[in-house]
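A further point concerns the way the authors explain their paired sequence and structure data. Each protein is reduced to its one-letter sequence and a matching series of backbone shape codes. An entry of this sort, consisting of the sequence and the corresponding backbone structure tokens, reads as follows:
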Amino acid sequence: MLVTGATGFLGRRLVEKLFERGYWVRGLDRNLSGDQGKTAGGAEIVYGDVGDLASLRPAFQDIDVVVHAAADTSGSEEGTQRTTIHGTKNVIDLCREFRVSKLIYISSLAVYGVADYAKSMVVTEEASLERYPERRGFYGGWGRS
């Protein structure tokens, strides 16, 4: 299993839980600082930047499941375009090329209109989305803040 964003806030915890449950995990990290090949939370960590298609190819070798948790959280338009949008396209393209059997995409809670929810409401995939995404910036929305 490949986890993109494996050393990020969510990815790091996901890798630990997957490893605890007996899964073999390869984690993708764009800022290795000499850690390539080492393990983190039980995962083999390899270099790859979702915004750079060529750097991703080695990580997809012998992978049947991809959990895509990488995203730019800076809130900048450039980061969103390169990592969140173009990077997701790269991951999808490589899943097709390498015939990955399952792709699990993790988005952000920021897309939901939580300000409109009743206290203690359970958020599901059917929950209403943000009414004014253009006010949320590029990370959680779809336009200028």
About this structure: The radius of gyration is 16 Å. The chain has two domains: 2-106, 111-145.
